[in-house]
Amino acid sequence: MLSRFRRYVGRFFNKTRKINHEPINKVSLIVIVIVDLFILFNVFAGLDDISRWPISPQQAYPCYSQWDWYRQNSSENVDYEIVSLFMTRQRGVFHWFIPLHRLEST
């Protein structure tokens, strides 16, 4: 069993050291492996970056709830209302850091 495994491993390395029945030197093999590792690392790093992209509008645009409220509000003084809501202070914090649904309940 062990000798069969060694034979398969030996065949694998013998076949990987030749291209078109011509031997490849060790420096070329090392360069190929390094380039392959570099490509693999960059592919998985890119996939990791893509997986961290925001999915919902609330994650992508922190002011989405305020914009949505402004868009859906049909009153004539909507501009005045939103400016007055955003510019008033409560407990030393500006209201534009607080979602609008919390402002309307206060």
Strand order of the largest sheet: 1-2
| Uncertain stretches | none
Head-to-tail CA distance between termini = 77 Å
Major beta sheet, specifics?
Answer: 2 strands, antiparallel
Mean pLDDT across every amino acid position? 76
| Residue share in helix | 55-70%
Whole-angstrom Rg: 31 Å
| Structural class estimated from helices and strands | mainly alpha
Coarse shape = rod-shaped
Please state the oligomeric state of the protein chains shown. Answer: single chain
Order of helices and strands: HEEHHHHEEH
Features:
106 residues, rod-shaped, 4 strands, two-stranded antiparallel sheet
What would you note in describing this structure?
With 106 residues, this protein is mainly alpha-helical. 66% of the residues lie in helices and 8% in strands. It contains 6 helices and 4 strands. A two-stranded antiparallel ribbon has the order 1-2. A two-stranded antiparallel ribbon has the order 3-4. Strand 3 and strand 4 form a beta hairpin. The mean pLDDT is 76.
Summed up:
This protein has helices at residues 2-16, 26-51, 57-60, 64-72, 78-87, 100-105, and strands at residues 18-19, 22-23, 89-90, 93-94. By secondary structure, the protein is mainly alpha-helical.
Show the helix and strand layout.
Elements: H1 2-16, E1 18-19, E2 22-23, H2 26-51, H3 57-60, H4 64-72, H5 78-87, E3 89-90, E4 93-94, H6 100-105
Antiparallel strand pairs: 1-2, 3-4
